[in-house]
Automatic annotation (TrEMBL):
SUPFAM superfamilies: YVTN repeat-like/Quinoprotein amine dehydrogenase (SSF50969). Residues 1-19 form the signal peptide. Gene3D superfamilies: YVTN repeat-like/Quinoprotein amine dehydrogenase. Keywords: Signal. This is Lipoprotein. It comes from the Bacteria. PROSITE patterns: PROKAR_LIPOPROTEIN.
């Protein structure tokens, strides 16, 4: 009898969790969402940066990944022992995938079906299918963090050592490593130029002041760009290459000749940066604000209040 009551109680708990609903995001609605890790919330904005909805979640996530259907949202975190799966259109949790604690990054691969998950505690990359089943696990370097894909190669930046691991996606094996700077984070892959740009935090009291540009063919360091302090995010659009340094709250613009042509101060402890149309969006982690900037003039056009601790952005066109 006690066992029956326990099972009924457990079933009620599960039903209660699954019955929690959030404002629905219609499938044809374009949005930009901030992943706010201090108050574990999501803030949804439309393409005009008007407020759409807030999701207040009691999950210790640190990131999210939108799948190819444009509706399924995965939430993951270093302290979570599962990956929580939500439907935006239904406004609720629809599944939970098995995982080990330590996941700090996830990426949908170019085939639109495979999902790579970086586990910093286990020093590996797991490959999930769309149903949440683990198909492969590959050991990489210490404290892996960033992932970039170039056709059949997956580049893994290992924050805990001076090594970048290159996984062959056909064989699902590490085919080579090359030496990079310590504590690297923030990366840009330029396929046509056969380059990978890496930022970083620095080691101990020595803060990183440069972005390092490596050859993806040879692993050779080609050049450095001085963009102090702690360049931790790099992206490219039609207006140029942009480097965000959160130690100095600075945004740098780099031209095709690898010259810093413009810089400005933005945000308070900014971490995340993305591009929408001709705008650059920067999230201020300590100010709880989203800064909308013109990518040509690099002037702030608009400042938007979001949840506490915006750490990542997710967009759907």
């Amino acid at each position: 009898m006690k066992q029956v009551l326990f099972l009924l109680f457990a079933a009620l708990l599960l039903t209660g969790c699954n019955s929690v609903t959030y404002p629905k995001i219609e499938h044809d609605q374009s949005f930009i969402a901030t992943v706010n890790i201090k108050d574990t919330s999501l803030t949804f904005l439309d393409e005009q940066y008007k407020h759409l909805a807030d999701w207040d979640l009691s999950i210790p996530f640190m990131g999210g990944l939108l799948l190819q259907d444009g509706d399924t949202l995965l939430l993951y975190g270093k302290d979570m022992d599962s990956i929580e799966v939500f439907s935006l259109e239904k406004g609720k949790q629809i599944d939970s995938w098995e995982a080990k604690k330590g996941i700090v990054n996830m990426k949908l691969l170019q085939d639109g079906k495979s999902i790579a998950a970086v586990n910093q505690s286990l020093n590996n990359v797991s490959f999930y299918n769309e149903e949440g089943r683990i198909e492969d696990q590959i050991k990489v370097g210490k404290s892996p963090m960033m992932l970039l894909q170039d056709h059949q190669q997956l580049y893994v930046m290992n924050f805990g050592e001076t090594k970048l691991s290159v996984i062959n996606l056909r064989t699902r094996k590490v085919e080579r490593d090359f030496v990079i700077q310590a504590s690297s984070t923030g990366a840009l892959l330029r396929e046509e130029q056969q380059e990978i740009w890496l930022g970083g935090h620095g080691m101990g009291a020595e803060m990183e002041e440069n972005v390092h540009v490596y050859s993806t063919e040879t692993g050779e360091l080609k050049r450095t760009l001085n963009t102090p302090i702690m360049p931790i995010n790099i992206m490219e659009n039609a207006a140029g290459i942009f480097i965000l340094s959160h130690g100095s709250n600075a945004l740098y613009k780099v031209d095709e000749a690898y010259k810093v042509v413009k810089s400005t101060t933005v945000g308070v402890n900014p971490f995340e940066m993305t591009t929408v149309h001709d705008d650059i969006l920067i999230a201020g982690y300590d100010s709880d604000e989203l800064y909308v900037m013109d990518s040509k003039s690099m002037k702030v056009k608009q400042t938007i209040k979001v949840g506490k601790g915006p750490f990542q952005m997710i967009s759907r066109e």
